[in-house]
């Protein structure tokens, strides 16, 4: 390609409205591809940044992400409704520090779905910080983590719209935490407590509070 042809092609790209460029980039799911696009030029870097603001759903499952990169992307995604930072096959690196940074993002109060499945690097400290701002939450998957009743109390206090929750293999919570959760989350329809250590008679306690609750043992 001659210099003249390259210049002409560059000019054509430059005429593409930034909003349209951001819209096109928002359709790219691969974070690797987005990182490469961001390195094309300053304009494309801005387009990538703006593209995250157009997304209603983000999933980091299957990607090797750390606290800083995840928080940086979520902070740009101000229109986000669904956030999935489940454990990936590469080994998730997200910790309480990452959850605390994510909790300050503008989108958190509008999130309707969060998945933290299998995030063994997080504790109650990070979960409570994040959940305390997620007042619109309807669906939560926090299975396979080491949370305790402290997180359940925070969910019960901050998430009145909660409809479904997965606590699969959360073996450090107790009957007391579940009772508080079901008592305060009046819209809760389904709860998964498979693999936990709560006794079977706890089911009766929960159903006495919410007879229509679907319990997945």
UniProtKB/TrEMBL annotation:
Q: Name one GO cellular component term.
A: SCF ubiquitin ligase complex
Q: Which InterPro entries match?
A: F-box-like_dom_sf, F-box_dom, FBXL15_LRR, Leu-rich_rpt_Cys-con_subtyp, LRR_dom_sf
Every F-box domain range: 13-45
Q: Which Pfam families match?
A: DUF7885, F-box-like
GO term, biological process aspect, one: SCF-dependent proteasomal ubiquitin-dependent protein catabolic process
- Annotated F-box/LRR-repeat protein 15-like leucin rich repeat domain ranges read 83-197
- What is the protein name stated in its UniProt record? Uncharacterized protein
